[in-house]
Write a structure and sequence with these properties.
Two copies of one chain form a homodimer. By secondary structure, the first copy, chain A, is mainly α. The first copy, chain A, has one domain. Chain A is built from four helices and two strands, in the order αββααα. In chain A, strands 1-2 form a two-stranded antiparallel ribbon. At the A-B interface, β2, α3 and α4 of A face β2, α2, α3 and α4 of B.
């Protein structure tokens, strides 16, 4: 692959990472549902669950980083720093998807041993939106993984 | 830093990663508590929670990888492959700590909005053991992060 096409490819993947992280943040941040259950009004918000808050914040950081990195010139002297910071962001996004996914799994399936009931039956819209957000977050992780492999392939000896 | 001392340092960190992942696996796999609550016998096992199972399996894979990598000769032609595989293992361990940590947080604090009660009051020994295991897993992630930064520092242009 030539240098120009390699750069175009990197730029495309960075834009994709920006889109995925920004979408994940927005979809999670707007997830909200009100419902009535046995005459009790339930309001589901992502802020009620620490793991979902962490997911939203991590993806917002990821989106900001993906935006800033677009303006970093592709000079070789930066590549080491970019590889290290890409790696840290990938780890942050991975942790966010894993944490939110684990709590989402409890919401969907419950945990009978702990006495935690599944709640997605009561708030299906909220659950679907959280799931959509998780899919975007997972895509962002995959895109960053491709970027990391590409950097390792081109810049390491 | 000379080449020999750099290699000794890497070996030390790899041994530390092996110890941390193996300890995390064993401590999680042996976590178990029986208790009686309102005349109902409760048995807490890590197998009852998918996130804890994932944590144990991920750390077992991490320990096996950390062991195998000790026998890979430090030849430059392998460094690219080692960097890539180190990165994937670090992401796996990060996901494991995040997923198990998120569910552990629900166990400790509960989630009143979802109607999930904290359960650590009933099974303190189990909770402490899971917490210890999470600390070991977190140490393993930090050790791998140092190893990754070291490899990036020494092998990238």
């Amino acid at each position: 692959m030539g240098k120009a096409s390699s750069r175009a490819c990197t730029l495309l993947f960075r834009l994709l990472a920006l889109a995925a992280t920004a979408t994940a943040t927005i979809v999670m941040a707007t997830s909200h549902e009100k419902t009535t259950f046995f005459n009790i009004q339930i309001e589901a918000k992502f802020q009620h669950t620490p793991a979902f808050k962490f997911f939203a914040i991590a993806n917002a950081i990821g989106a900001l980083y993906s935006l800033i990195i677009l303006f970093v010139p592709p000079v070789t002297s930066y590549s080491r720093l970019v590889l290290a910071s890409d790696m840290v962001i990938t780890m942050l996004l991975t942790a966010a998807v894993a944490a939110a996914g684990a709590v989402g799994q409890v919401g969907k399936k419950g945990n009978e041993h702990a006495g935690w009931l599944p709640i997605c039956g009561q708030i299906p819209k909220f659950c679907d939106q959280v799931m959509g957000s998780l899919v975007c977050g997972f895509i962002a992780v995959l895109v960053y993984l491709v970027l990391l492999f590409h950097t390792i392939h081109t810049h390491t000896s």
